[in-house]
Please model this.
Amino acid sequence: MTNNNVLRSLRYTFDFSDPKMIAIFKSGGCETSREQVKGWLEKEEAPGYLECTDINMAMFLNGWIIDRRGKKEGPQPEPEIRLNNNIIFRKIKIALDLKADVVLKIMTMAGLPMSKPELSAFFRKPGHKNYRACQDQILRNFLKGVQLAYRSEAK
Model:
């Protein structure tokens, strides 16, 4: 999935306004404008489309974690230069303060039930023998489940 798709999905699910999006980016250390945010939210074929880079997406997710859970003491985490679906999945899970059993329910709601060991494989370090790369389909279904679980609450 592209960072733009993830950003659009989260904005829709949680009904973020443009000022809220800008504030979340700012919390993560990214100064942005309304035009830039609008460009990131456009479809790929739209004239004003801008690609959301990995570092910008990482700053948004870090800012969202701070927005939802508060700033942690000490130095703030540096945004990742390269993102993958596993990191995006983990950061969304952290922002929403989801435990494994809730994530499993969300995945079932989205029509992709999985076991606890399958889920924990996505959150392991890449060198670990049980590490598993999170495919686009899994992240897409997780975002769909989050939308089913949270969209009605956002209003």
